[in-house]
Amino acid sequence: FAEFERSMISERVKLRLNRVKASGKKLGQPTKINDELVSDIWSLKDQGLSLNKITQQVSVSRSTVYRVLQMERRHV
Questions:
Q1: Residue whose C-alpha is closest to residue 64's, from 51, 74, 49, 73
Q2: Strand, coil or helix: what is 74?
């Protein structure tokens, strides 16, 4: 009986998530990356700053800086 109950709960959760996605909402934690941050990171990179200095200047993690630098350059 417990397996049946677990499968029913799982099915309801999946249906709810699909309904939320279909309504256009994003799931998960919001991203810190925005146009201003991208512009700031590229500007600092053009000035020749190291990744550590960039992360300190813009107060984001190193992985966020890497992610921005791997993106196509825009708004600069």
A1: 51
A2: coil
CB atoms within 10 A of CB 65: 20
- Cα torsion through 29, 58, 62, 37, rounded to 10: 60
pTM of the model: 0.59
Extract the tokens encoding 64: 């966020």
Each residue of 5-52: pLDDT tens digit?
A: 999 999 999 999 999 999 998 888 888 888 899 999 999 999 999 999
Helix (H, G, I), strand (E, B) or coil at 59: coil
Nearest to 13 by CA among 30, 31, 27: 27
